[in-house]
Amino acid sequence: MIATAEMIEGHRRIAPPHGAPVWDVDPYDEAILCSPQDYYSELRRLGEVVYIPKYSVLAVGRYQVTHTVFSDYEHFVSSRGVGLDDFKLSRPWRQPSIILEADPPDHTKTRKVMARALSPKSVKMLEALFVQVAETLVDEVIARGTIDAIPELAERFPVTVFPRAVGMKDVDTRYLVDYGAMVFNAGGPDNAIRRRAMQSAGVIVPWITAACARNRLEAQGLGAMIYRAADAGEITVEEAAMLVRSFLSAGVDTTVTGIGNALWCFSQFPDQWEKLKADPGLLRPAFEEVLRLTSPVHTFARTANCDTTIAGVPVEADSKILCVLGAANLDPDKWPDPERFDIERRPVGHMAFGAGIHGCVGQNLARGELQALLGMMLKKVDRIEPAGQAVWRPNNGIHALNALPLRIIPK
Known about the structure:
The protein is built from 17 helices and 14 strands. It is an alpha+beta fold. A 5-stranded mixed beta sheet has the order 3-4-10-7-5, sandwiched between helices. The protein has a 3-stranded antiparallel beta sheet with strand order 6-14-11. A two-stranded antiparallel ribbon has the order 1-2. The relative contact order is 0.18. The model has no long low-confidence stretch (mean pLDDT about 95).
């Protein structure tokens, strides 16, 4: 470990590189996290690479350079942490993910197992479950009329279907939601947001670990598929347990966020709900547009593994680089009129699910869940209207809603 004086927020302190503008901003300020559009715009305006002295990091937000850095796993690695902490220089808060926080060849081995478990064929087998739960929940919210869509739909749907899809015998819906929030908040600085999220770590992390053990999973389910890969010698039993944990790390909170953000979009842009009702075939591109516009995961970090460059700017080894996916997804050089929600846009190449070898391995599952829920709403719901002020939740890694009052008007 390097000397404490050379460290800041768990990574190496660096000097501003030649050619990079210096911007005195706090990307993890609660006001910015709740309403990040101005931050995104200024980050892109300042240049290809920006130095942020508060955390001694580099940040990229223009689409092309962000995509390049995020995809270049040889120079900008994930194994040293996808948050501010550098796992080579400071101790991780929990054992690192062997898929999200790993590089080839280790990443290649574990991703192959996960990709098979979360293949389109596997998700197709879960379709009946998704539709059944979606119909029950949509009927319930229609009966109530006015709801807070975050706990009543966005959270409730994933925590109902996901444990059953994985085959979990032990289910605590609050722990599942809070664990996801904990994982993403842990990637930021040691701020009040992170400390609040980590308050229950001593209880929730051991519970999650125990719930992912083989004897706590049904013989049929996504979790059992992972353990069968261990039986076949592709991975170890210990690695299998960690991969099942990865389901829970990234498979709940991001889906909760995606559903909540989709409902927010359609309540704010009622003409697009009318367009979708008229052509349900737009459901898939509509979800992609939700992801592009709202970027559920707003930032992932990479670490420079050697002296290199970004867009001609020299980058020292050990530098932390914030890949601001939310800014890249609103880059007007890539997306005309980027802050307009348009379900006919078909935003191929958006970075809400990452890019390259670290593209989200669970995206088929997330799409399957949202397609079931929104598809059921299309059948039964005429209008989705705001019933109060939407409240965004400050989170160091996720752009998510805390409250979304809606009126659900049936057909």
